[in-house]
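Customer escalation, tier 2.

The customer says the design service returned an amino acid string that "doesn't look like it belongs to this structure." They asked us to rerun it and document both sides in this ticket. The original structure tokens are below, unchanged.
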């Protein structure tokens, strides 16, 4: 349950890391992107592979609290475990969630980071703030658990208000909903249940098994556990946006609203072009 004991505007940060090589860069990216906010606590949840020799102590620095994660559902279980470690979140507070791809191929430009910070500060009390660009160009007719998806927020980096968390029951995902969507098995035609619309099933089959995703692979008995895991994470991402819309929580994309950011980014690109970079 949310409380009202913390000052308005306070922000907590939860970063989930899997790759020991990427985590330091992701921590640095978080500091650069969110260090100017009124950060109260910074939690690093380590979903480290069994083969990793890295320890929590190796990443505990500069006010970060490192803790082990179960990796039961990738970053989603890590974020949920981080929320449990934070305890009650004030209605007026914000929690920023990120995974370690933020320090790699999904690192944001300075202009994008500025726009995201501004959106987090200015967003209303019932809001989900993040980038929806990954869903641009998605086919029509997408729905999941009977809820239409006219775009969704990419969850590599996003923020949600304490009041919105309360509306979601404090849960970023519901295990029962994921069970209802992903059947698994080695037959792509029935890998997803009928709770996933036909258009969305085709899209996800292409994404997971037919080369849409950078780590896509053919569906076989050997790859099936990995692909079920990824499919459940994808459905958790889709359902977070769908659940927020159903609960009346506004989804705010800082790039779609902030024309100043677009001008700054264009100026940056022009400057680098002139410098030959």
């Amino acid at each position: 349950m949310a409380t009202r004991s913390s000052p308005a505007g306070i922000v907590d940060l939860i970063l989930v890391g899997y790759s020991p090589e990427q985590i330091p860069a992701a921590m640095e990216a978080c500091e650069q992107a969110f260090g100017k906010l009124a950060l109260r606590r910074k939690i690093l949840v380590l979903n480290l592979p069994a083969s990793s020799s890295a320890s929590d102590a190796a990443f505990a620095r500069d006010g970060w609290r490192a803790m082990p994660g179960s990796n039961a559902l990738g970053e989603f279980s890590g974020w949920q475990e981080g929320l449990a470690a934070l305890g009650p979140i004030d209605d007026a507070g914000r929690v920023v969630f990120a995974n370690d791809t933020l320090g790699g191929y999904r690192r944001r430009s300075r202009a994008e980071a500025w726009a995201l910070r501004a959106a987090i500060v200015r967003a209303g009390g019932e809001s989900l703030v993040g980038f929806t660009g990954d869903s641009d160009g998605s086919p029509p007719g997408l729905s999941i658990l009977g809820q239409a998806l006219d775009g969704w927020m990419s969850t590599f980096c996003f923020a949600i208000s304490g009041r919105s968390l309360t509306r979601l029951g404090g849960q970023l995902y519901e295990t029962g909903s994921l069970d209802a969507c992903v059947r698994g098995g080695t037959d792509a035609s029935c890998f997803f249940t009928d709770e996933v619309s036909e258009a969305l099933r085709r899209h996800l089959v292409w994404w997971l098994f037919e080369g849409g995703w950078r780590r896509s692979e053919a569906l076989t008995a050997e790859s099936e556990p990995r692909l079920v895991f990824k499919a459940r994470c994808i459905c958790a991402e889709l359902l977070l946006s769908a659940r927020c819309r159903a609960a009346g929580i506004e989804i705010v994309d800082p790039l779609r609203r902030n024309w100043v950011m677009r001008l700054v980014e264009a100026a940056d690109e022009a400057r680098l072009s002139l410098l030959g970079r």
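Tier 2 assessment: The sequence is consistent with the input. The CA atoms of residues 207 and 213 lie 5 Å apart. DSSP finds nine helices and nine strands in the chain. Sent an explanation to the customer and offered a walkthrough call.
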